[in-house]
Design a protein that fits this description.
Blueprint: H1 2-10, E1 14-21, E2 31-36, H2 39-49, E3 55-60, E4 77-88, E5 93-110, E6 116-121, H3 130-150, H4 158-164, H5 168-178, H6 183-191, H7 195-247, H8 252-266, H9 271-285, H10 292-306, H11 319-329, H12 334-349, E7 358-361, H13 368-379, E8 383-387, H14 395-398, H15 411-419, E9 425-429, H16 442-449, E10 458-459, E11 466-467, E12 473-478, H17 486-490, E13 493-496, H18 502-521, E14 528-529, H19 532-541, H20 549-567, E15 574-575, H21 581-585, E16 603-610, E17 613-625, E18 630-633, H22 638-653, H23 655-658, H24 663-667, E19 668-673, H25 687-699, E20 707-709, E21 712-713, E22 719-720, H26 725-734, E23 739-743, H27 755-760, E24 762-766, H28 769-776, H29 778-790
Parallel strand pairs: 1-3, 7-12, 7-13, 8-9, 9-12, 14-15, 18-19, 20-23, 23-24
Antiparallel strand pairs: 1-6, 2-5, 3-4, 4-5, 5-6, 10-11, 16-17, 17-19, 21-22
Length: 791
């Protein structure tokens, strides 16, 4: 027993991972690509990749149907291999391996998670004789014959490779891998104990292959005869067409070309475009209808002739009528309407002026898309809309080159083709939601399209001719500007559409939403009445949004339920009272936070801006006895975290002035939390609320519950301006807040608020944090006033 173990050790026995192969065999000295996807095989490869020499054993399995072969399912002779290249794909791992030497599988060492076996190298056969040399020459002759028969199917240098193979065994392995052999034959070649035996096996395989190739050549000769018959038929058809021409009978292809010629003669095309169209049409006339490029060229000419190169609609600009249209279609939005009327006035006085690139920015449901339709109506132009949301491929805008199969023009030219004129109103919706990946950057393609200085000679990849886009009135829409690249944003004029107040929503519902829903449900206006009190209850308790989409859905639900009553035979008109809303709309969706009516010490009310409008944000701070440092939770962004640290630094630096024991900062920690932790929050505008919450927590005094605040702070106590003032103030009003603290520099933004909102709310304009704390914390304010009096 000891003698056997020593003998095995002397023969370099090793334990290596085993990779089973289903349909092939790897030979020594050769390279092979492998696609690894089975879990057991993936585990083996992952283990091999962690080793330094990247060595494992590749063995063919006896039963190709086995997905998880065991040691008994494998042949006993395999090949030790080395990984040369590796790439990870979606379905597994792609490898290129090189066979090193034959090995014998002695014993299974591991079954899970992958096979490991004890293997021993097989000696390389080195027998030499006259018979081996004769057999080698016979194999080479058969291989050369096979190459001659395969011709186009095999590279030309295969014969040279066969002739240069020096070692007979390497020759056998190389030719065996090139033949389409089954696993059993390849395995027999691998297990051949001598060179002579390997060459004999290969000679038999090559003999069979040559016989198959000779038979295939005979079949090809018969097929060539059949092809000659097809050519004869083609010539006869050509003669038939000539006879039809003599008789005055037109074939379909010629009639189609003549129709294109007639359209080209009648079309009013620019000279450069006409020259290109003539060239393509002449090429089409010479081309047989069966040619692959025939339909491609015909489709290209169709596009050339259908594009509105010179056709325009004449603007009928009546500013009084335009104002009436805008007022009839949209309630409020005074500043936006004024800006649109200014552009219309410029176009009326100077029709050659370049159309502006407008970007309507605002929360969902405020009327951005419908505003573009109103502009088109006011101008008397055609209107086309295309959504850019989720667009990743630059070719969607610029088109594909005609060299690609299924090439199409870009969406811009397709929209102009549908409009039929070169000066429509083209709305690009959701420009802030453009994607970007390996197919290109659509936002970069828009840089040319939306630049009046460049788009006069816009070149679509499919059209490959300059097309004038300078007469198009582009209108883009977005919910936010953060994701729009700065170069693209610089080409557009931003018009902000803020959210609506409750009074504005009530007017919109009465004028537009309710009549539209009644018409869709087939209910007459006199059959359903919703009093103002009920409508305001729907607005305040069943919707919380900057726009009016949820409000229209709620009114639609009421109209459908009333329509059902009339469909069932009810005849009396219906008046919806407040107490009926629970039956019609269910439980109220928006409720005042009762536990926020009286704030606990350490809680302040901040105001935030989101893509859906403004919202109320509560900041909570709690002192941790025996704690250390500042802890922040609530999925806060980097900027908001910096605001919290700046707020703590300010409170610490002014502890004496605020009446706070400085030892609290040394011997106690503080935890700041912003509820709704599943929602990401970021931005600098919570700085004032952070200072207020920390001051309240350290002094153990509650903040006024009817006060909300916004503003960025600095370490020296300055209150800096922030954006989204209108949305934030409207959100405070919806939440029942009656006093709002704003930065002094945002005073001009108050003019955007409706008059009733300015009358109803009280505003404090803070230039420093000392101006805000007395309002939110009256007791602290008295202390600050006494301190200022001393100074």
């Amino acid at each position: 027993m000891t003698e056997n173990i020593n003998k095995e050790n002397a023969q370099d026995v090793a334990v290596l991972p085993v990779l089973p192969l289903k349909n092939t065999v790897l030979f020594p000295y050769l390279f092979m690509p492998l696609a690894v996807g089975r879990p057991q095989s993936l585990a083996a490869v992952e283990q091999v990749l962690t080793t330094e020499d990247k060595t494992f054993v590749v063995v063919a399995q006896k039963d190709t149907a086995a997905d998880e072969p065991g040691f008994a399912d494998l042949y006993t002779v395999g090949t030790r291999a080395v990984v040369k290249k590796m790439a990870r794909g979606e379905g597994g791992i792609e490898l290129i391996v090189q066979g090193v030497e034959r090995v014998t599988l002695l014993k299974e060492e591991q079954a899970q998670p992958f096979l490991k076996a004890r293997v021993r190298p097989l000696p390389v056969p080195d027998d030499t004789s006259t018979e081996v040399e004769a057999m080698q020459r016979a194999v080479v002759e058969l291989a050369v014959r096979a190459v001659q028969l395969m011709q186009a199917d095999t590279p030309v240098n295969l014969q040279q490779l066969v002739m240069q193979a020096g070692d007979p065994l390497r020759l056998a392995y190389m030719l065996g891998s090139m033949l389409s052999l089954d696993v059993a034959k390849e395995q027999a070649l691998l297990e051949a104990p001598t060179r002579l035996e390997a060459l004999r096996l290969l000679h038999g395989y090559l003999t069979h292959e040559v016989q198959v190739l000779e038979l295939r050549q005979q079949i090809n000769s018969s097929a060539q005869t059949e092809m000659s018959k097809q050519q004869r038929d083609f010539f006869l058809r050509q003669q038939m067409r000539a006879i039809q021409d003599e008789l005055g009978e037109k074939n379909p292809e010629k009639a189609e070309v003549e129709e294109l010629r007639r359209r080209l003669d009648e079309a009013q095309l620019p000279e450069a475009v006409r020259k290109e169209a003539e060239r393509e049409l002449t090429r089409l006339e010479r081309m047989p209808a069966a040619a692959p490029d025939f339909q491609v060229t015909r489709t290209y000419l169709d596009l050339l002739l259908e594009l509105p190169w010179t056709k325009t609609t004449e603007d009928t600009i009546d500013l009084t009528k335009a104002r009436e249209m805008l007022d009839a279609d949209h309630f409020g939005l005074k500043e936006v309407k004024e800006r649109i009327l200014e552009d219309l006035a410029v176009l009326k006085l100077n029709p050659k002026a370049k159309a502006p690139i407008l970007c309507l920015v605002g929360p969902p449901g405020v009327g951005k898309t419908s505003l573009g339709q109103s502009i088109a109506r006011a101008l008397g132009r055609k209107f086309e809309r295309m959504s850019l949301g989720g667009l990743h491929d630059e070719a969607e805008l610029r088109g594909h080159r005609r060299t690609y199969i299924g090439a199409m023009p870009g969406r811009i030219l397709q929209a102009l083709r549908r409009a039929g004129v070169k000066n429509p109103v083209l709305m690009l919706d959701e420009v802030d939601k453009l994607g970007r990946d390996y197919r290109g950057d659509p936002a970069s393609a828009l840089l040319e399209i939306l630049d009046p200085a460049q788009n006069g000679t816009f070149r679509d990849n499919y059209l490959d001719l300059p097309f004038d886009l300078s007469k198009v009135l582009f209108i883009t829409t977005a919910n936010a500007l953060d994701t729009i690249p700065r170069p693209l944003l610089d080409r557009m004029e931003v018009l902000r559409l803020s959210g609506y107040s409750e009074e504005e929503k009530a007017q919109i519902a009465t004028r537009y939403l309710l009549p539209r829903q009644l018409d869709e449900c087939g209910v007459k206006p006199e059959q359903l009445t919703i009093p103002d009190e009920t409508l305001r209850r729907v607005i305040s308790r069943y919707t919380r949004e900057a726009g009016v989409r949820d409000l229209e859905r709620a009114l639609g639900r009421i109209a459908r339920k009333v329509a059902r009553r009339f469909a069932e035979g009810h005849t009396e008109p219906v008046t919806v009272r407040v107490e009926d809303l629970q039956d019609l709309l269910g439980q109220e969706r928006v409720r005042l936070e009762r536990h926020r009516l009286q704030l606990q010490p350490g809680v302040s009310t901040g105001l935030a801006w989101t893509e859906a409008g403004g919202d109320v944000l509560y900041i909570e701070a709690s002192i941790l006895k025996d704690g250390r440092g500042l802890r922040l939770t609530g999925q806060l962004g980097d900027v908001m975290r910096e605001s919290a640290r700046a707020a703590q630094t300010f409170v610490w630096a002014h502890a004496d002035l605020l009446g706070i024991d400085p030892d609290l900062f040394k011997h106690a920690g503080v935890h700041v939390h912003v509820p709704a932790g599943a929602v990401p929050k970021d931005g600098p505008s919570a700085g004032v609320a952070m200072v207020t919450a920390l001051t309240s927590a350290y002094t153990n005094r509650p903040v006024r519950s009817d006060v909300a605040m916004t503003g960025e702070i600095t370490l020296s106590g300055l209150v800096l301006p922030v954006g989204g003032i209108k949305e934030k103030v409207l959100a405070a009003r919806r939440a029942g807040i009656r006093h709002v603290i704003l930065p002094k520099d945002n005073e001009m933004d108050l003019r955007e608020l409706p008059d009733e909102v300015r009358r109803e709310l009280q505003f404090t304009l803070a230039e420093r944090i000392e101006d805000a704390l007395p309002v939110a914390l009256p007791e602290i304010g008295q202390r600050l006033q006494l301190a200022e009096a001393r100074f």
